[in-house]
Specification:
The complex is a heterotrimer of chains A (375), B (162) and C (358). Chain A has 375 residues and is an alpha+beta fold. Chain A has 15 helices and 10 strands. In chain A, strand 6 and strand 7 form a beta hairpin. The longest helix of chain A is centred in the first third of the chain and has 29 residues. The model of chain A has no long low-confidence stretch (mean pLDDT 86). Helix content of chain C is 70%, strand content 0%. In chain C, helix 4 packs antiparallel against helix 6, helix 7 runs antiparallel to helix 10 and helix 10 packs antiparallel against helix 15. The model of chain C has no long low-confidence stretch (mean pLDDT 81). The chains are: A alpha+beta (375), B alpha+beta (162), C mainly alpha (358). At the A-B interface, helix 2, helix 5, helix 6 and helix 7 of A face helix 1 and helix 4 of B. The complex binds iron/sulfur cluster (2 copies). One iron/sulfur cluster binds next to helix 3 of chain B. One iron/sulfur cluster (SF4) binds next to helix 3 of chain B.
């Protein structure tokens, strides 16, 4: 407990702690935030993490490179495909293997679909955090179509494990292109509804505009990446800066906002959905022919001795995979630089002086996925 | 004057945005019959079909002569990240050639430890195992989740190369 | 149109013959009490069911559909479940106040429902200051919320309770002021007199734009007073887990739940009575034939149709809008609703003075 102080009127007053989480409706998982409050005003946010720590990095040390891929599904489960891709790209780069164009294009489409589904879920949950319970189901309705596409082609809805070092596990399903086109057409009519329900709503505007402003300098020094960082004007899109897969052959804008408040973080994601749709549209009709699995990758993969790093842009920001190899079939050390971890710790900086309700909105727009933070 | 004007403009614009939101939810409310997206699960069990690539659990298909394609090579065991497959093999003398040969005794599969990652299926050189599209796997006893995939008395198919 | 006072009179007659006046009085009170309790229990179950179905349709779901036909018995099942649940109390909770709060909140709801006119001649307690009485007793409920939030010894519920206190006190003003516009027009506080004054048309139609404005304000303030979304500050599920009733379980929680829906019903009923003519059928000026046809629909049906309509709108609010923040909520009241309301009241007074209304 903090010390008692006297107000102007001579009343005793005291700041107090509230535990938000590990079981709390708006932490979306087992995150515990200790809030130091003065009335309803937040003085300090102390995040306590580790409730879903599964030592994924350590587990990777006993796994072969093929097996590592499937564990990464379980880190940021909403960017599962990008996580897979990061490990696969790392192995391919280390072995200096070029995958076919077909693989590259399919990976890109899959990544963008994953990004869309992640943002859809985030949108639904964001509305729910602010009390508009109906948005949740609308977000899920559209996400369901993507999940069906994944299920048909990859065989699973969440832990897809579709990428393998050197290619893909299967070719795309014959229905894939038709379904994706159907989805794009459908979602283009639904995105304006998202705007009408939340983005333009006066209550929502008042709840988000000017709240939790993150300056560009702070975004850079906290290492805040992804839409959260880009909303503050910090240009950090790996897809632009270090293009991988087929991102160098598509046209898209890096969404950069200026204000860095909760609303611009929100808006950045909505605009990003439009960009993802346009990327998918550019690629879906011209998937080149080519082999699905590069024959140059052997059954047992051994990376050369050395250190390797690969980063990709997940739905939450920059995911970096760092591998130290000693030349055997298992890595010596693996480190994941997960976007959620860096983004979480900006919360204390953002939330000071705001109310509990604002903290919930901020947490929502930082888009935390707890298994990604804890790994 | 301008302050008063903005005051009223705020009110009307706010009301307008609120009404647009209500229009959308109102549309879904009045078209609920058409737009409902949820399924009535146990009732639609018969019609509910998973996609053919759906990964439910690992099975080993047997043909009508109770023969399968598994040679007991242990590739799947090695490929599995979770140790959910245990291959128990024997060495027998092939009656035709007289050479020593490795055959499968028990292909033990722990469904409870399986993450359905498909790596074993890919690794199998003879395509002896595949994914089944079932999805109701809950049991009352954890032991039931450990299965022996090759049926009792089954043999390896003749044409399968080791 | 069937007058229910015939029925009540005959019961009164029968009882007076059978026993002494005092006995008759007591029996009548007991009957009314039982009828009201039964009505409240049934209507709350119905409301909860309707709310869940409505929410489901807004959200593209089917809603409860397992227990009974179309899930009709779902709320009954939930109620039985709540009855059987364990009572849990935090160690340092104030036992007396903790147990008192749910009763207080339910009592307030019951006090108010007695004065609601359900149909022609179907009103338990037609007091001559009806509007004032209902506003007065329904604000006792907030005492229950404050006490419940404080006694549970939980910081979340304390925050919720304090928010609720600030909110209900502010919005009470708006609700009463908007009701006052009609009181000015009708020239009476008695609910039956207000209904009678709408014999040739409901006030929303007769009263020009000012009454329309006060009707909208009443809807907003009423939603806020019942602690429902987008004004569910006191519960604010995503911020305070469950707000003031975080620590309550079992039947005590059910009481809060019950009171919430009774309050919703009362607000809608008062709104329907004051603005939409209560049980009064839709009458348009001098269209005698039309008015006659409308009279064939029983008064109680009119009342429930109107009340149901208002409840529907309030539910529509809840399932569409995000929640406000507590300070914005107060800004909305003190900066927007209250000044508009005061000006509106003046305008209405002027209209009444000049006799410009229909
Ligand atoms: S699917 Fe994956 S986890 Fe399951 S048995 Fe095969 S390799 Fe092991
Ligand atoms: S299932 Fe396939 S990989 Fe596994 S032991 Fe049999 S033949 Fe080998």
């Amino acid at each position: 407990m903090t010390e008692e102080t006297l107000t102007k009127e001579g009343l005793k007053t005291q700041e107090y702690f509230v535990n938000m989480g590990p079981q709390h409706p708006s932490t979306h998982g087992v995150l515990r935030l200790m809030l130091e409050l003065d009335g309803e005003i937040i003085k300090k946010v102390i995040p306590h993490i580790g409730y879903v720590h599964r030592s994924i990095e350590k587990m990777c040390e006993k796994d072969s490179y093929r097996q590592i891929v499937h564990i990464t599904d379980r880190m940021d489960y909403l960017s599962n495909h990008m996580n897979n891709e990061a490990v696969c790209l790392l192995v391919e780069n280390a072995l200096e293997i070029e995958v076919s164009d077909r693989v590259k294009v399919i990976r890109t489409i899959m990544s963008e679909l994953t990004r869309l589904s992640s943002h859809q879920l985030w949108w639904g949950v964001m509305g729910m955090d602010l009390g508009a319970l109906t948005t949740f189901l609308y977000g899920f309705r559209d996400r369901e179509m993507i999940n069906d596409i994944f299920e048909e082609t990859c065989g699973a809805r969440l832990t897809m494990n579709y990428n393998t070092p050197g290619g893909l596990m299967f070719d795309i399903h014959p229905n894939f292109q038709r379904r994706v086109k159907e989805f794009v057409a459908h979602f283009k009519t639904k995105l304006p509804e998202y705007d009408a329900l939340l983005s333009d709503n006066v209550i929502f505007r008042n709840r988000t505009e000017g709240i939790g402003v993150l300056s560009k300098e702070d975004a850079i020094s906290f290492g805040v990446t992804g839409p959260t960082g880009r909303a503050s004007g910090f240009s950090n899109d790996i897809r632009k800066h270090k293009p991988y897969s087929a991102y160098d052959r598509v046209e898209f804008k890096e969404i950069l906002m200026e204000t860095g408040d909760t609303f611009s973080r929100y808006k950045a994601r909505i605009l990003e959905m439009w960009e993802s749709l346009s990327i998918i549209e550019q690629l879906i009709d011209n998937i080149p022919e080519g082999e699905i699995q590069s024959p140059a990758v052997k059954a047992v993969i051994k990376l050369p001795k050395g250190e390797f790093y690969q980063s990709v842009e997940t739905a939450r920001g920059e995911l970096g995979v760092y591998v130290v190899s000693d030349g055997t079939k298992n890595p010596y050390r693996v480190k994941f630089r997960s976007p959620g971890f860096s983004n979480l710790f900006v919360l204390n900086h953002l939330a000071q002086g705001y109310k509990i309700a604002d903290l919930v909105a901020m947490m929502s727009t930082i888009d935390l996925v707890i298994p990604d933070i804890d790994r | 004057m301008s302050a008063v004007a903005t005051y009223f403009k705020d009110i009307f614009q706010g009301l307008k945005t609120l009404l647009t939101g209500m229009k959308i939810t109102g549309y879904y409310f009045s078209h609920a019959r058409k737009e409902i997206i949820t399924q009535q699960y146990p009732e639609n069990r018969d019609t509910l079909k998973m996609f053919d690539r759906f990964r439910g659990r690992v099975v080993m298909p047997h043909d009508e002569n109770n023969e399968h394609a598994c040679t007991g090579c242990s590739s799947c065991e090695l490929a599995c990240p979770n140790g959910s497959i245990e291959i128990m093999w024997e060495r027998i003398v092939d009656p035709e050639t007289g050479k020593k040969k490795k055959i499968i005794d028990k292909h033990v599969y722990h469904h409870s430890m399986c993450t359905l990652c498909n790596l074993c299926i890919i690794a199998c050189p003879t395509d002896a195992i595949k994914m089944e599209q079932t999805f109701e796997h809950a049991t009352f006893d954890r032991k039931e989740l450990t299965m022996i995939l090759n049926k009792p008395g089954s043999k390896v198919r003749k044409d399968v190369e080791e | 149109m069937y007058n229910f006072s015939a029925l009540t009179q005959s019961i009164h007659q029968y009882l007076s013959e059978a026993m002494s006046p005092l006995g008759a009085k007591i029996t009548e009170m007991a009957i009314i009490g039982l009828v009201l309790i039964a009505f409240v229990a049934l209507s709350v179950m119905g409301l909860v069911y309707i709310e869940r179905k409505v929410a489901a349709f807004f959200q593209l779901r089917v809603g409860p559909n397992r227990v009974g036909k179309w899930g009709l018995l779902q709320t009954l099942a939930d109620f039985l479940k709540l009855l059987m649940k364990e009572h849990i109390m935090a160690r340092n909770a104030d036992k007396f106040l903790f147990n008192l709060a749910p009763f207080l909140i339910v009592t307030a709801a019951f006090l108010a429902i007695g004065a609601v006119p359900f149909g022609l001649g179907l009103q338990a307690f037609d007091i001559n200051i009806g509007v004032f009485y209902i506003s007065a007793v329904s604000s006792i409920g907030v005492l229950g919320i404050l006490i419940g939030g404080w006694a549970g010894n939980n910081k979340y519920s304390l925050i919720g309770a304090l928010r609720s206190g600030a909110q209900v006190i502010s919005y009470e003003i708006s609700a009463i002021l908007s009701l006052l516009t009609i009181v000015v027009l009708a020239g009476d506080l008695q609910l039956s007199a207000i209904i009678e004054s709408q014999r040739d048309g409901w006030w929303v139609f007769k009263g020009h734009i000012p009454v329309l404005i006060s009707f909208v304000i009443f809807l907003i303030a009423g939603t806020a007073e019942t602690n429902r979304g987008p004004f569910d500050m006191a519960e604010a599920e995503s911020e305070l887990t469950a707000g003031f009733h975080t620590e309550y379980s079992g039947i005590k929680f059910a009481m809060f739940f019950l009171a919430e829906y009774v309050n919703l019903f009362i607000i809608a009923a008062v709104g329907a009575t004051v603005f939409l003519g209560g049980w009064m059928p839709l009458h348009i000026g001098h269209w005698q034939a039309f008015n006659h046809i409308m009279d064939y629909i029983p008064s109680i049906v009119w009342f429930f149709l109107k009340t149901g309509g208002i409840i529907g709108i309030i539910m529509w609010f809840k399932w569409t809008f995000p929640r406000l923040r507590i300070d914005q909520l107060l800004v909305l009241e003190w900066k927007y609703l209250l000044p508009i309301n005061l000006v509106n009241l003046l305008v209405v007074a002027f209209i009444t003075l000049m006799g410009w209304h229909f």
